[in-house]
Design brief:
Elements (H helix, E strand, L loop, with lengths): L5 E6 L3 H10 L5 E6 L11 E4 L1 H10 L3 H7 L3 E2 L3 E5 L8 E5 L7 E4 H10 L6 E2 L4 E7 L2 E6 L4 E4 L1 E4 L6 H7 L4 H4 L2 E13 H8 L9 E6 L2 E8 L4 E9 L10 E2 L2 H7 L9 H9 L5 E7 L7 E2 L2 E3 L2 H4 L8 H17 L7 H30 L10 H8 L4 H4 L3 H16 L4
Parallel strand pairs: 1-2, 1-12, 2-8, 5-14, 12-20
Antiparallel strand pairs: 3-7, 4-7, 5-6, 9-10, 10-11, 13-16, 13-18, 14-15, 15-16, 17-18, 19-20
Bound molecules: flavin-adenine dinucleotide (FAD).
Amino acid sequence: MAESRLRIAIIGGGLAGATLANVLIQIPHVAVHVYESTPEFSSRGAAIVLTNTSQKSFQRAIPSAPDILKKTGAVPKNSTQLILGSGPEAGAVIADLGNSGTPGLVVSRFSLLRELLSLLPKEILYTSKKLTKIIAGGDYVDILFEDGTSSQFDAVIGADGIFSSVRKHVVGTAADEAYSASPAGFWDSRNLIPYEKAKSVLGEEYFKLDRQYGWIGDGAFIMHEFLEDRAVVQCVISVIEKDPPKDRRKRQLTKEYLTEILSNWLDGPIAKGMIELTLDQPEPSGYSQWEHKLTLTYAKDHVCIVGDAAHSMTPWQGFGAGMAIEDAMVLGVLFRNISSPQGISAAFKAFDAMRRVRCERIIHSSQGTGVIMCGRNEEVGLDVDKFRQSLFSRWDVIDAIDYDVHEQEALEKLRETLTGGN
Ligand SMILES: Cc1cc2nc3c(=O)[nH]c(=O)nc-3n(C[C@H](O)[C@H](O)[C@H](O)COP(=O)(O)OP(=O)(O)OC[C@H]3O[C@@H](n4cnc5c(N)ncnc54)[C@H](O)[C@@H]3O)c2cc1C
């Protein structure tokens, strides 16, 4: 192997892998390659919101981030209205959340991935390359693919999503049960409905302003928001899940089932319309939300995990991609500060030390936020004032971060480990 640069393989070409690759190609002494298992790079799902905090880390990690976001056609999330959806006070407005500072951006996942990949040289991107095995030893890591080929790298970074193979290597198979992703206690059904149709069913008054509407109620949360210049409306029903299927398979939704679980909502302003729109889908269905409650480590020697492979979370606080961007930002800083294969395990140790505490705190906060938003927090219940007091400060765990300090601490951990202090 004549390459004098650090050779790094990223496994998985989703948002985490593509963001990280864009960070690492900026570093002259790093050669990065991205391996994706599917025949084409693609992203499932409609849109994500990149909060003000996510936009900051994105720009720190990739200086051209504002241009990238512009090319995706991202639109500002102007405001959110939270309304009580069930019970005697149904219809009461809990809060009108405007924007102080930079608004979040609603970004199409597909467009974001497309733009990130367009900045990478084609020759470092591989499709139909499913990782099947990692053989690590000494300063090199061999990776084997399903097609029978293999390759050797100085480091391997798993960005291969919630059911990551690289995670199994890092955390160890003995710990499979305890450290695997597991149901978080909710399922949801997300559907894209043509704008005029959604408006006629849900009612004009909830379409007057360009905002997100969230309905908090007994055992569930309902939401609708406008995408793609008001061409479509994303309609979401999220429900407390008591009987999660073991394999995260699709849950078929029927009229009987939906009217039973939303029985306390039916006299309110939103549930009947949302049930109608959901049942009008070709295959009305929902999926369990899963999360990584606990992870032993994000790194083992020359292998580490990022994005959903390390810390998948529920969508209640909308920061899964935000955490993946932060991972890329921190790894960028660490890789700029090592130049030989011998520094890699120290960099990955520093990454684990910096990232795991923060990410697990956010995972747990998001799950608890879901319980509140589904009206099942014992102290808050369906009390409008208590919602106001308890809900909004929950975003502090995400936003109260100084990225200068976070990066500096990562570098200190790296130095400590390199000098044998850890
Ligand atoms: C409903 C919902 C709403 C959300 N909303 C938001 C939001 O508003 N804001 C936000 O910040 N986040 C949000 N998130 C979270 C965000 O979508 C994820 O955190 C992010 O997309 C994860 O990206 P990833 O690249 O880590 O994983 P993935 O997107 O799962 O990508 C993993 C990639 O690895 C590939 N792969 C898997 N196995 C292998 C293998 N063995 N070999 C090679 N390749 C492999 C896969 O094919 C895939 O392309 C939301 C999530 C959900 C479910």
